[in-house]
Amino acid sequence: RIIRAAFLGFIMVFGPYLLLEYRTYENTRVIRTYKGDSSADGSYKMFGDSVLKYTKDGMTLIDQKGKEIWNHSYQIKNPIIEINHEVAAIGDSGGNSIIVIDHEGIKGEIETTQPIEKLSISTNGIVAAVLKDEVSPKVMCYDSTGNILVENKVSAAKDGYPVEIALSNDGTTLIVSYLHVQSGALASNVVYYNFGDAGREEKNNQVAGESYTGQIVPSAFFMDDETSVLVGESGFYIYEGTDKPKLKKEVKFDTEIKSVYHTEKYIGFVLKAKDKKGYEICLYNQKGQRTMSKKFQGDYAHVKMVGETVMMYDGVNCCIYTANGVKRFAGQFQDKILDIVPVGGINTYTVMNINGIQKVRLVK
To answer: Is 170 in contact with 124 (CB distance < 8 Å)?
Structure first.
């Protein structure tokens, strides 16, 4: 009787929570809509607790109720954006303009001497950029007002072509992945540069480097102040430290990587399923240990993770998983999704689309 009573008590107390936590939802209900200007060429990005809308003509920071905080006009033909916590850099891909912003407004503007290919930004507003040139590209670092901090001229024939960059949070360590041809095959040289005390006595400020023969390393990022990750075609590599980065863990895959995403806590992948039927979503912690893996059907162009929630979406189709492997949602939204983020409230999300901002709840 005691065991039965305890079990019934547990069900009464925790049953509703377990039902909500482990249920898969298939429909949505719009709680509230905050109308935008319905410009079809606009893009949205979550920027902290606010929403950044940017177009070719300017950007507007708005709160999640659609109220404008500030706006800024510009002329950028092909805007690309990099966000790092409370700061962001908007650049003109193929052009020469970079604008650095925070939640208060414009921190500074940068004009480059060559077309912009890649951007990265630190939490204190330092911007790294790859400037395009087929023979002699440059890897540059600027402060938020446009002053040049680092100018690294690259010989594409000797060093390879820079295809990826990543700045540490404090802006002192820069990862550059160079693509080159070695013995007739593609290879990647990944170099860590340190512009603080640790790299001052090193040649070209280089404090670590590794060659990856026979594969491309197209993605690199810092998870926190000390942990960085390189992603190749067949796996990933976790490095520890910024003064003298050391390889801590190598993980190999025997299937194709489709998407990569990360938070400060997780490294996430969408992989082609080994049986070629569908895909597999998986998470790894900073130690390189797999913490979640689930197979799913469907093809999603966008994947992101916020907190403990993974969101995949393409058009109106969306699939949401929790970090512990629960499929929270599989279905369609009313309008094409431009961005989505979980917010306070049970199964509640803020969704950006061409009509504005919607607060949406998942329903059965």
So the answer is: yes
Of all residues in the chain, what percent are helix, strand and coil, respectively (each to 5)?
10, 55, 35
**Distance, CA of 39 to CA of 147 (rounded, Å):** 35
Q: CA dihedral in degrees (174, 95, 36, 39; nearest 10)?
A: -140
Please tell me the pTM assigned to this model: 0.90
Assess contact for 177 and 217: CB atoms under 8 A.
Answer: yes
301 closest CA partner among 327, 334, 279, 328: 279
Per-residue DSSP letter, 75: -
Phi, psi of 205 (to 5 degrees): 65, 20
Written as six digits, the tokens of 13 are 């107390």
CA-atom Rg of the chain in angstroms: 22
Please give the backbone phi and psi of residue 331, each rounded to the nearest 5 degrees, phi first.
175, -150
Closest CA to 146 of 108, 116, 172: 108
pLDDT of residue 281: 97
Encoded amino acid at 16, one letter: P
Tokens of 332: 């369609």
Q: What angle do CA 62, 66, 69 make, to 5 degrees?
A: 30
> pLDDT at residue 169 above 50?
yes
Q: Looking at residue 15, what is its pLDDT? A: 47
Sorted by sequence, the CB contacts under 8 Å of residue 358 that are 6+ apart come out as: 30, 31, 32, 33, 34, 335, 350, 351, 352
Distance from the Cα of residue 12 to its chain's centroid: 41
The C-alpha atoms of residue 177 and residue 221 are separated, in whole angstroms, by: 11
Say if residues 161 and 146 touch (Cβ distance below 8 Å): no
Identify the weakest region by mean pLDDT among 21-35, 185-199, 224-238.
21-35
Inter-residue contact 31 to 360 (CB < 8 Å): yes
Hey, what are 24's tokens?
Answer: 């898969």
3-class DSSP assignment, residue 280:
strand
